[in-house]
Amino acid sequence: MPPWTPSAALFDNLRYLLNEWDPIGVADLSQDEYDCMLAPLFQRLHRGTTRAEIGEFLWYELEDHFGLDPVGHRTDAMADRLIAWWSAVGPAPDTGGTPAT
Questions:
Q1: Cα angle at 74 between 49 and 76, to 5 degrees?
Q2: pLDDT given at position 100
Q3: C-alpha to C-alpha distance for 84 and 60, rounded to whole angstroms
Q4: What pLDDT score was predicted for residue 41?
Q5: Could you tell me if 64 and 36 are in contact, meaning their C-beta atoms sit under 8 angstroms apart?
Q6: Using an 8 Å Cβ cutoff, are 25 and 70 in contact?
Q7: Of the N and C termini of the chain, which has fewer Cβ atoms inside 10 Å?
């Protein structure tokens, strides 16, 4: 079985969520600013990474990739939102990649 690949709709949904969060304040100017986080987030979400690990990833990205102080950017709240979203739309673990309904 080939590795799971997210659909274009899932990519668009995750991009939307990241742009709504918009920690560096440029989403109105650049819709793809956070695309560097899409694949790593999908990999983590698909393998069932915890909310704490998602929060740590977001913290690391803000600090090391974007050069921001993550304090005040609500990385834990964003991680909660991503986990909730994924629970609603992501593939069910026992279906081999079929999106949850």
A1: 25
A2: 46
A3: 21
A4: 97
A5: no
A6: no
A7: N
Hunting for tokens 């987030």 — which residue is that?
41
- Tokens linked to 31: 């819709």
For residues 82 and 38, what is the distance between their CA atoms, to the nearest angstrom?
A: 11
Judge whether 24 and 18 are in contact, CB under 8 Å: no
Q: For each of the chain's 101 residues, which pLDDT tens digit applies? A: 456 788 889 999 999 999 999 999 999 999 999 999 999 999 999 999 999 999 999 999 999 999 999 999 999 999 999 999 999 998 765 444 545 44
φ, ψ at 70 (rounded to 5°): -65, -20
